[in-house]
Write a structure and sequence with these properties.
alpha/beta, Beta-Lactamase, 3 domains, nine-stranded mixed sheet, six-stranded antiparallel sheet, 22% strand
Length: 445
């Protein structure tokens, strides 16, 4: 007997099931009413003291019941209103739970009902969270930056700072943003992992890990380059962990993200202008000052401007083993950006002299990329090897060659160890690093 005959025999009625999902933004359709209720309840809660015999939850519920009396709200709308008020009082508005979720690495608010999240390297739209309107987003931004002593308004319509936990926050409001306020939060990672974690997820191979570990211990000057969100800071933190505990390390960042576990670490952070547009301390100021602090190592979170020349000068004047990152898509692009940034310093230096300066200062350029499947991979470890026709010659030591994509959407490829022995190996051996010879003398591919 077929399925249809069975259904007919038992007189089962065919029904179309409504599979439409009600999003958070649609739970309370009357946004003006929701905003008015929110404002009234929050103001009443602020003006009144919590009775000693009541908890905060009971106090909020009583205030909500008193305020919505006479309004015909559904249980879903009433529950939505309570969650909204609770997050406004105890947290950072609608994004409170998103900030607490450790699986979420980035939060992007484009519109009241358009919120995107980065989870495991993948961008997804969040249907469970929403704001009432643009003003609600701005109020949340103000709540986030108020403890930092920052303001955002028509006079200062852009804020780039960090939260007390180290998360980086960027907010732009009209007139700079034509579509309304935009909020982006890159959450701080309490633990940035270890090199073993990178090997396990396929970011690099054990041979690459051994080589990078030896390069840091052997005080090679290393640049880590990649795009936004590629994992540069995480890799820089892991590489920095290879530095000997006895060395004096000075870290310089816009927002303090590096978490080193050595005993002798000095962390310096830039400062933006105050209300009088005075008092700015830049990365360049801190690099210059760090040279007077007797550093064994200087680690710059990111080089992006005039400080590039001072960083190169430090590398060329006895401060070997310096580490930094910059935005670039590969070793060639990284060196071109360095040239441009040195020119930004305003010094009248010929291009040839700048290139010679870079070639003497930098030993390795490590490129890390976020692949199409969201995973990070070190796609190149290259050394600078003299000049070819007035251009700095770049010789790859390791590389990742992508062959395609699997049926599951994962990037398919292989890591390559090139046969030619790198010249940096001689420099490492001269500094007492002798545990890499097997890697190159066997000429493995």
């Amino acid at each position: 007997m077929t399925k249809n005959k069975l259904m007919d025999a038992f007189q089962i009625e065919h029904k179309n099931v409504n599979t439409n999902i009600v999003t958070d933004y649609d739970i309370f359709p009357d946004k003006d009413l929701l905003d008015n209720l929110r404002t009234k309840i929050v103001e009443n809660l602020i003006d009144r003291d919590i009775p000693e015999d009541k908890s905060l939850t009971e106090f909020i519920n009583e205030e909500i019941d008193a305020t919505i009396e006479g309004y015909d709200l559904s249980n879903l709308e009433r529950s939505h209103l309570f969650n909204l008020i609770d997050n406004e009082i105890n947290g950072y508005g609608p994004i409170t739970e998103l900030l607490e979720d450790k699986n979420i690495t980035e939060i992007m608010v484009n519109r009241p009902n358009e919120i995107y999240l980065e989870i495991d390297g993948q961008l997804v739209k969040d249907e469970s969270t929403s704001f009432i309107n643009d003003e609600h987003i701005i109020r949340t931004i103000e709540r986030l930056i108020e403890p930092l002593g920052r303001t955002i308004d028509a006079t200062n319509p852009m804020v780039d700072s960090r939260l007390p936990d180290g998360s980086r926050i960027n907010a732009v409001i009209p007139p700079l943003s034509t579509r309304g306020p935009v909020l982006t939060i890159r959450k701080f990672k309490e633990t940035m992992g270890t090199v073993e974690d990178l090997i396990r997820v396929g970011t690099l191979t054990p041979y690459m890990a051994r080589f990078l570990d030896a390069s840091v211990r052997g005080k090679l000057n290393i640049i880590v380059c990649g795009g936004t969100g590629s994992g540069k800071t995480t890799l820089l933190n892991i590489l920095s962990g290879c530095i000997a505990d006895k060395e004096r390390i000075i870290t310089i960042e816009d927002a303090a993200e590096l978490r080193l576990h050595q005993n002798h670490v000095i962390s310096l952070e830039t400062r933006t202008t105050n209300y009088d547009q005075e008092g700015e301390i830049t990365i360049r100021d801190l690099v210059i000052n760090a040279l007077r602090m007797r550093p064994d190592r200087i680690i710059v979170g990111e080089v992006r401007g005039k400080e590039a020349f001072d960083m190169l000068q430090a590398m060329n004047t006895g401060h070997d083993g310096s580490l930094t990152t910059l935005h670039a898509n590969g070793p060639e692009d990284a060196l071109n950006r360095l040239e441009t940034m040195v020119l930004m310093s305003g010094l009248d230096i010929p291009i040839k002299a700048i290139r010679e300066y870079i070639e003497k200062a930098i030993d390795l350029v490590v490129t890390i990329e976020r692949m199409n499947d969201g995973k990070r991979k070190i796609t190149s470890i290259a050394e600078l090897d003299g000049f070819i026709d007035d251009r700095i010659a770049i010789k790859e030591i390791f590389a990742f060659h992508q062959k395609g994509v699997t049926e599951q959407g994962e990037v398919n490829g292989e890591y390559i160890l090139y046969k030619k022995t790198p010249k940096t190996l001689k420099k490492l051996m001269a500094r007492g690093i002798n545990d890499l010879e097997d890697m190159f003398t066997t000429k493995k591919k």
